[in-house]
Amino acid sequence: MKLPPHLSIKGGHLYIGGHDCIALAEKYGTPLYVTSEDRICEHFRDYQKALSARYNKVQVLFAAKANGNLAVMRALAQLGAGADVFSSGELALALEAGMPAKKLLFNGSSKTHNDLALAVQHGVKVSVDSLDELHQLDAVARKAGKVAEISFRVNPALEVPTHPKIATGLATSKFGIPHERIPAAYREALACKNVKPVGIHCHIGSQILDVVPFVKAAEVMVRIAKELSEMGVKLEFLDLGGGLGIPYHHDTDPAPSPEDYAKAVMPVFLAGMKAAGIIPELWIEPGRFLVADSTVLLTRVNSTKAAHKRFANVDAGFNLLIRPAMYDAYHEVIVANRADASLTTEYTVTGPICETGDILAPDRKLPELAAGDLIAVLDAGAYGYAMSSQYNGRPRCPEVLIHGKDVALMRRSETLADLTGTMLRPPWQR
Ligand code: LLP
Description:
21 strands, 12 helices
């Protein structure tokens, strides 16, 4: 199997960023998320470089939903990243990670009054998702004596080649304002005293392995940008949404790079801006591409079983990585303690959760397994820990960060006390 450069096999052991996964699992226990900070930084720099080689006003915003660990966000902040935040919690994380408010965009189709108030308080731009929200924000900003800078989220009505649950710019999707109603929305915003439209935003979906849909989205966006400029909207940024997908099937998926993205999208953007006669910042909000392949989830085989097929029962399930159960997502698995052994036996790798769908990897050819073997689930850095839960009374596992020769915990393991820590005893049970 093809491995990215930060993963390697030596003496039968899987290494990440030069660190032996077997030793890490022994030191920190399993399950364990292990992340290479250097890999994340490399991806960020690639995006930054590909775009800024073609245009000098580029801002890369990390989609915080993909991985909300402060250490990850801090590393990105230090490289100059901003963030797409989708909740007050993500907004707070981004600020705590050192991202300046001016580099944040508060997205979301269902914001609360408190979300809007927090954005206004910190001067964070809001991507407004409906006219109802526009007027609520206007009122919140008026009360605070401020003017809220906004974009509208455009629904470009584009079919994209990805799982239907993560296609976000379909005509039928819950996100954004239909593109044909966008000029009217800006007209309404221009009439609001405490709101100032300064940007335009879209996001077409996630895990897209073809640059063409991004080009189509850019075409819609530059056409609208021109129309808005003619209406007198002074656009300071144009945000093209999330980033590229990644090759979860290492040997067969296409692997478009930020350079491929920039080569395809930037001519459309540049020509569009020239036609509109404006030079706004170009914003982009990659999540998955920056963090997905940086991380392995290490999980120990508790037992094996030969039933109608062979099962390898491991200690991580959809409580820690829900993507396979939720989207039938594919993640490569490697037996980390015998990574060079021949793949002789088919196993379905199943988690410990009390649900039939708790399958991390169905029908994979692996070496013959025994209790105690260590399995690495690859590409677990995006929407992995971020979507984890305590389901079935399972405290979440720790996360470890690797940086050159250094290794450190970036999140401790939850304990049994963390399961009950937020629970209260109703008075009649005292
Ligand atoms: N911007 C907005 C407004 C988004 O909604 C998203 C992702 C992104 C940026 C980042 O997209 P990316 O670069 O990661 O493709 N949990 C699913 C993915 C959900 C994505 C939702 N929005 C999964 O595990 O595949």
